[in-house]
Amino acid sequence: MSHATPAPVHAVQGAICLPTIDSAIVLEFGSQAAKNRTLARFALMSEQNGLILPMGDFTSIEQMVARQWSDHLTRTFPDGLGHGLRAVPMICIDDAHLSVIFTAVSNINCYRAKPVVEALEQAHKGLGWFVYDTAVMDRGLHVYDPSVIGHVIEGRFWEIEEITDEAYAAHLLNEEGRSGTEVTPEVIEELRKQYSYWPSDLLGGFEGAAHLLGLSNIKPPKPLDACQVEVWLGQNEEHPFAQCVRDALTHHVLMTAPDCPNFAYVFQDDEDDTDVIGAMAFVSWDDPGLLIEMAGEMEQLAYQGGYIAEAVGRMRIGCAPEPTDEDLSHLVRATLAYLKRWQQLEKLMSHFPIYENED
After folding, report:
1. Paired strand residues for 103
2. What pLDDT, in 10s, does the model give residues 204-260?
3. What's phi and psi for 347, nearest 5 deg?
4. Looking at the whole model, is its pTM more than 0.90?
5. Is 332 left (phi over 0), alpha (psi -120 to 50) or beta?
6. Which residues fall within 8 angstroms of residue 191, CB to CB, at 6 or more apart?
7. Buried (b) or exposed (e) across 327-349, using 16+ Cβ within 10 A?
8. CA-CA distance, 62 to 23, in Å (whole number)?
9. Which of 76, 157, 246, 337 registers the highest number of CB atoms within 10 A of its CB?
């Protein structure tokens, strides 16, 4: 098992390369030179897209590029970025790729969706689910939502037509070779001592929102579309949640634009079999206990499975052959668009209460 968290490349300082017949040294020197050249061109393309080149002494091109982007973040987001949805942006380069990676951190917030969604559903059916879907479905701004629970336990229920204790008990009896046994309360109580995650326990905390579990045999409600949301906003400008809906609509427009850059880590290519863990926040329905437990179990399974990256988003371009100016400029523009979406999603999530439990 290996565990790889992306990290910036650090230049070797103070090294003197002498002529030698050892081809490995020549290859290493050439490889670093190519990386430095690519990073320098990336800095120039960044400048052409509005990022000021920093002044001062730098011992490596990596330091200069990092300062260029950190200065841009400070200027563009004076109130900071990452207070609500947390991640660490990094620019990384190796022989194969130049990557912008948003690495995951551990101290993330947990938002409760129920108060917001229920209030909006009372205002107009489908409005709350539009806002919820907008909050959790952005490509690359990854959060842990209740579908994580379904992802972990789906295998327990995939053969069951109804998600009920009785159907689950019948399924368990069949697996034990007791298919003819009558499902009585006594039998269910007996099975409860041996098996966990019973439907009544899972669904009891969701109160009409069981589809959030992501189980294939629970049909989700239909959210409003963006046009319907615009109409509602025009008629309800003074509603207490009007700004929340505006922020959701703004983010929806950004993330559904035809040129919206896809920073979803796993979409990149078939060559990369990395398992990715981590999120910018938890978005629970109400009490997040089960969601946090299932997210931890999912991460533990990933750790046991192979090559791991703790990240919420990534975009990369190839370095062999060296990228064109257009390739580099596209990566800059995509990253700037991602940062704008990150800021907008934080505005939306600020309307959701944060779950606080001193325990």
Report:
1. 88, 311
2. 888 889 899 987 778 899 999 999 999 999 999 999 999 999 999 999 999 999 999
3. -60, -45
4. no
5. alpha
6. 169, 172, 173
7. bbbbbbbbbbbbbebbbbbbbbb
8. 26
9. 157
